[in-house]
Amino acid sequence: MSGRTGPAGQPPLLARPLRPPSAGRAVLHLLLLVLGALTGVAGALVQPAWFPGGLLLALAAEAGLVVGAARAAGHRGAAVAAAVGWAAAVIFLTASRPEGDFLFAAGSGSYLFLLGGIAVAVICATLAPVRQPDGDPVRLGK
């Protein structure tokens, strides 16, 4: 690490100690977790209705939620919270009950929704544009 300091004589961002999240950020992540779960349930209901279009609509809704959460909050943690909510709801819905009820049929659309949704969540959470740390406008890692 270089000996440079950040703005106003502060140590560089990576040298600062971690702080616990604020109450507002914790509430935001909880709301995004619930919104991700609602998006997963809605997508599970829409994707088999109009097969190719419903599947694309459900995956686009998930991508919009994950990228929108990251852009609105300014950090990837919000995108991860929304993606975890989606994945938890969808995985919960895949379990069959003792009565024999289930929501997902054993078809290609269901598997594309499950696996494609996980791939979309990972891609969008990883590539979501977020703000850069304070300091020099050069590329990080140089």
From TrEMBL:
Pfam hit, one: DUF6113
Superkingdom of the source species: Bacteria
Transmembrane segments: 26-45, 51-70, 77-96, 102-130
Keyword hit for Transmembrane helix: yes
Stored InterPro entries: DUF6113
Keywords for this protein: Membrane, Transmembrane, Transmembrane helix
Descriptive protein name: Integral membrane protein
Phylogenetic placement of the source organism: Bacteria, Bacillati, Actinomycetota, Actinomycetes, Kitasatosporales
